[in-house]
Amino acid sequence: MNFEIGEMRLTQHFRYFLLVVLIGCFVLTTTACASEEVDIPLEGVIDSDEIFTVEILRSAGMKTSKQYDVTDLPGGIDAWYGFIKGVTGPKDIEARFYSSHQEAIEFGTVLAEEVSGDDANVDKETTTWKEGVRNRSRMASGGAADLAAWSGKRKPNYGDFVIFGNMILLCQGDDPQQSVAVCYELIESIRTVSYTHLTLPTILLV
User: Fold this and answer.
1) Would you say 132 and 70 are in contact if contact means Cβ atoms under 8 Å apart?
2) Distance between CA 110 and CA 199 in Å, rounded?
3) In this model, does residue 180 exceed pLDDT 60?
4) Is 60 left (phi over 0), alpha (psi -120 to 50) or beta?
5) Whole-number Å distance between alpha carbons of 120 and 111
6) SS3 for 166-193, per residue?
7) What CA–CA distance (Å, rounded) separates 196 from 9?
8) Which CA distances in Å does 44 have to 96, 117, 163, 164, 204?
9) Whole-angstrom distance, CA of residue 116 vs CA of residue 100
């Protein structure tokens, strides 16, 4: 009788142990999958034949504050400076428009690379396209705990850029990852607006 009770307790303990192991494996697997999703890199070039204008950016939530003169911007047909209210606060955006996705890549890539990243050329004397150059840099933090303390120096405003359709979006960020993430906040809003517009009943679009 005592042997049977002991065997029953042992079986219950084993079942409990097995349950704990299974739960632990599930948690580890879920965490690993979540980590993999977070680590997926965002694309710098999004292939799309869509032709965007500044109006779609406004509909997506971008506040435009200045239109740039694109006379000296190779291939450019329009350009705007403004900001969006991102998840971490207001973020500056510079949007350059071209006639097509291919022209955005062909004419815009090199000039966007020139004014983005840690080594960006944002000097008004040497940068290639000088229009709006002042907005391509911002005050650099002095490194103190108080964010209001500044070094008095300026740093590049745009960590990177994304080409989407006929647009090049230069987005504020301390590094390329932050910058591209900000761009994607705006891009997702654009996609939502575009999808909503396309699915509206025809009577509402007349």
Assistant:
1) no
2) 36
3) yes
4) alpha
5) 10
6) CEEEEEECCCHHHHHHHHHHHHHHHHHH
7) 61
8) 15, 13, 6, 8, 35
9) 22
Residues 187 and 69: their CA atoms lie apart, in Å, by: 24
CA 31 to chain CA centroid, nearest Å: 24
CA distance 112 to 162: 9
**126, 144 contact by CB (below 8 A):** no
Q: For residues 203 and 187, which has the higher predicted lDDT (pLDDT)?
A: 187
DSSP codes joined into one string, the chain: -HHHHHHHHHHHHHHHHHHHHHHHHHHHHHHHHHHHHHHPPPPSEE-------HHHHHHTT-EEEEEPP-TTSTTEEEEEEEEEEETTEEEEEEEEEESSHHHHHHHHHHHHHHTSSTT----TTT-S--TTGGGGEEEEE-SSSSTT-EEEEEEESEEEEEEETTEEEEEE-SSHHHHHHHHHHHHHHHHHHHHHHHHS-HHHH-
pLDDT at 95 over 80: yes
Question: What CA–CA distance (Å, rounded) separates 89 from 85?
Answer: 6
Mean pLDDT for 31-40 is: 46
Give the amino acid at 52: F
The CA distance from 96 to 114, in Å, is 14
β-pair type (76-86, 158-164): unpaired
pLDDT at 42: 76
Single-letter amino acid, residue 72: D
Q: Is the pLDDT of residue 38 over 50?
A: no
Model pTM?
Answer: 0.73
